[in-house]
Amino acid sequence: PDLAQFMDKTAPKVTITHHPDVRRSLMTQKAYAEGMRALVLHTAAVQDDIQIKEAEGEDASALIALNDLLLPIVKGYGSEKSYEQLAQSLQTFGGSGYLQEYPIEQYIRDAKIDTLYEGTTAIQGQDYFFRKIVRNQGAALNGLAEEIKKFLAVAAGGEGLAGAREELAKAAVELEAIVGVMLTDLAATEQDVKSIYKVGLNTTRLLMVSGDVVVGYLLLRGAAVAAEKLPTASAKDKAFYEGKIAAAKFFATNVLPGVAAERKLAEGVELDLMELDEAAF
Asked: Which among 237, 178, 234, 186 has a CA at the least distance from the CA of 209?
């Protein structure tokens, strides 16, 4: 029966989509799936813009740097979160999801390779920080941050998305703080080379948090478009647009606040783990 009628022994049974935790799981899956698809398409669009600029004889260096910045997020974040969400999908099917009757069990096996080949997630995190941020002197990351700030400044989507935009703004600041912590630890290697270990303990964290912020931004961009279309949408399209708005708001309120916690964790990283005897593992 519905959770609100749990004391009523005569209450009718309802579909699983009536249950709160199932809805939480399904909306989480929807938000990540649509957000990561947007991430891939956004990166592909950047690559298109590079080709256009180069064909017209214009300087495409800024776009090339942005593409380079996005690629480890696409690969590292995309593969890890896809695997996580496939596990949620399997869980939604219950015990049946574990059986070959449904394709989820194969998808979850097949998807794991994406976190491993062409550079594991750990390597993607190191590439992201050392090559795509430090070597680039933060130019591409700053450019992306400015793009997000411009989006937030125009208040796209109106009042309905105000809370979600606020969460994105806060998460972007927290991400900037994590990068600052890591740059400080990197600079400290001049006095103590072991400080590089602190950086290494945070590289995967930075990659995942960056993915959350970029996906949160892209979901909100889509939601802003949906909010404009919704008032004149046909009955057929109404649910589609409502779903876009709901996914963006859900991600903003349920995932983006975690970026602040990750910043605290990044700030608290110490060398005790690196000083532990190997036998302890």
From this structure: 178
CA distance 141 to 217: 14
Distances (CA, A) of 241 to 178, 219, 223, 247: 34, 12, 8, 10
Residue 191 is encoded by which pair of tokens? Answer: 């006095």
User: Is residue 151 situated within a structural domain?
Assistant: yes
The predicted structure's pLDDT at residue 88: 94
Q: Tell me, yes or no, whether 13 lies in a domain.
A: no
Contact 30, 222 (CB under 8 A): no
Catalytic residues: 118
CA-based end-to-end distance of the chain: 47
Position 252: which residue type?
A: A
Does 172 reside within a domain? yes
Q: Which residue reads 């939480």 in tokens?
A: 24
Q: Model pTM greater than 0.70?
A: yes
Q: What's the gap between Cα 103 and its chain centre? A: 25
Our count of domains for the chain comes to 1
Question: Which range marks the domain in which residue 154 is found?
Answer: 22-279
Q: Is residue 15 part of a domain?
A: no
pLDDT band at 96 (very low <50, low <70, confident <90, very high): confident
In the DSSP assignment, the letter for residue 93 is: T
